[in-house]
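Example record

One chain of 342 residues, shown exactly as stored in the release files.
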Amino acid sequence: MSGMTHFSFDDQSSGWNNPNKTKAQEELLAFRGNLLNQRMKYDLDYKVILAKRRIQAAVDKYGVDNCYVSFSGGKDSTILSHIALSMGLKLEHTFSNTRLEYPECVAFTKEWCRNHGIQLNMVLPDVLPLTVWKKHGYPMFSKESAEILERIRLMKKVNPKKLRKVTGILQRLGYKGKLKTKDGRICVNVKKVKQFLKSKGIKLSAQCCYYLKKKPMKEWQKKSGKYVAIMGVRAQESQMRRTVWVRKGCIYETKDQVVVHPLIFFRDEDIEAYAKKHNIRFADIYYKGLRRNGCFCCGFGCHLTEENNFVTLKRLYPHLVPAVMNHWGFGKICKKCGVKID
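Predicted structure tokens for this chain:
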């Protein structure tokens, strides 16, 4: 099939960015969406086989010395590491430590790699989190919505179709301006939204993901020469990750790296079943009620659940709450965004 290399597709062949897709392109995207749903229903044993095929395909094509496992100490990356080890692959593991990680996860990465004879690379950003938040804005709601609202605030061009994704958030924030026409079409006055955000002192951004995580990793890749990132990303985690697979597949090349997603079809129950089958114990913090690891004060998704990162932080690490809420400014931004913090 045109545009496919190993398990990867490109946007040109699928017509992803083309508003006037051919019938064949529309059928391809629909087929891949359905295929993803079907594969997520496969038995665990077959999903493991598929995961191993993806890892082996990356190693065969790009060379084992160029590959590494992106390891956060979370459940998914732990299962990914175990699968790679079961293949006889002791790939270097690299942990992008934003300085906002749960201590248990940091400790677990070191212990896991030490016990399995794996080289662990701990990558740190060269800028402090507070510096990024003050300059660019805070991570709230979702990465995509924060990026859109930041572009509006900076008066950068925004795809009109994407404005639909922030109308509900604007209403939540108290925006009273017109958002839809009588026939239901999106009608957002970007200048008025900018003025509203400025008047409310609402400064949102997803730039911390870049400066604290992506940028340090890119610099490490360039320095180490390892450019094939094998990650424990799963489609069930977000619509954006589903979309990436439909667009790109399990293995795809970007401008400066190769991305591999062997666990893309795994569901939550698959992760737990695999751990039980192989007697794997995760980082201790998961047995204290944590659902997902990551930055302990990240606001993405915190408006969607009662037990969000801030509530969890207060329960597990109450001594950190004053610094996060007061010194770092999350108390004010959470109040403005209507996000529960206790």
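Notes: The mean pLDDT is 93.
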